[in-house]
Specification:
By secondary structure, the protein is α/β, with parallel strands linked by helices. 28% of the residues lie in helices and 21% in strands.
């Protein structure tokens, strides 16, 4: 029997980012100023874990959703309960705020340890499932850092799974194609890159999710050594919008005109027509070497 711990995250609705979304002094995102939703890849990870639970044929398997964030992050846990989760855990504390990926992964790993020992009491028979990355941080570092902290193998960029010979076989994306990786033994961490079989909430599930009990832990409950801004290895120094591009696109169909435009661009040092000037001391121009 294996149980599942799914990491879910509440993220800003990127279609509605406002001008005052960031604190100008700290460089951190002020989530209360934005509409928030479940991270799409985490929603897919939830569906993927539910799929694994079904194909394993284990009726006793349990699925726990875990998130770290402000109190309002309980919304993504209610979302999880309405669709697949049997139990949810909210890790929330002001001391956890302002964390980078290291100070995010560390308390989550400690929370996972406590979940497996106290809530699930499952020993080593569990899988941690997460979306590959979140739309707000976009680093794809946290799941791998959790695996490192827990001393577990990490199967990344997963798109599918089958259950054969009492073990899972995962299909994952690699450079130039795909690869099938089997779990030799549990536990392990799995990151989902794509799983397009969404879960839909039922009427009964939605009603239950509104009143279902939720486990809530603070920093003192997990005793993680690296938390918040103080436990972070990196810090945001400044947040600013990208500069406006001055690039122009020229539609040229004549080969001779194209060649003339490129040469003239090099003479002018025009990056729009060829990048750096390539001018030597003798006044001659050279095209950049092919890489």
């Amino acid at each position: 029997m294996s149980d599942y711990i799914v990491l879910v995250k509440q993220v800003p609705d990127v279609s509605q980012i406002t001008d005052n979304a960031f604190d100008p002094e700290t460089g951190t995102l002020v989530r209360s100023r934005l509409a928030n939703v479940i991270n799409e890849l985490d929603a897919q990870a939830l569906a993927f874990a539910n799929h694994m639970k079904k194909i394993s044929g284990d009726a006793k398997a349990r699925l726990v959703a875990l998130t770290m964030g402000p109190p309002m992050a309980d919304e993504v846990l209610r979302y999880s309960l309405a669709r697949a989760a049997d139990q949810v855990v909210l890790l929330t504390d002001r001391a956890l705020g302002g964390a980078d990926t290291v100070a995010t992964a560390n308390p989550l790993a400690y929370a996972i340890r406590r979940i497996t020992k106290e809530l699930l009491q499952c020993g080593d028979d569990y899988l941690v499932v997460s979306g590959m990355q979140s739309v707000d941080g976009d680093t794809a570092q946290v799941p791998a850092q959790i695996a490192e902290e827990l001393g577990l193998p990490c199967i990344a960029y997963v798109t599918g799974a089958e259950y054969k010979n009492n073990r899972f076989e995962f299909t994952r994306i690699i450079s130039g194609g795909s690869q099938i990786v089997a779990t030799k033994k549990l536990p392990a961490v799995v990151t989902v890159a794509k799983y397009e079989y969404p879960l839909f909430a039922t009427f009964g599930g939605t009603r239950w999710a509104k009143k279902a009990p939720m486990v809530q832990w603070g920093a003192n409950d997990i005793q993680a050594p690296q938390i918040g801004a103080k436990g972070s290895k990196t810090a945001v120094i400044r947040v600013f919008p990208p500069g406006k591009s001055t690039r122009k696109c020229k539609q040229i169909s004549d080969v001779k005109e194209l060649a003339r435009t490129i040469v003239e661009g090099f003479k002018k040092g025009d990056s729009q027509a060829g990048g750096s000037t390539g001018k030597k001391a003798d006044g001659k121009y050279t095209l950049p070497k092919r890489r």
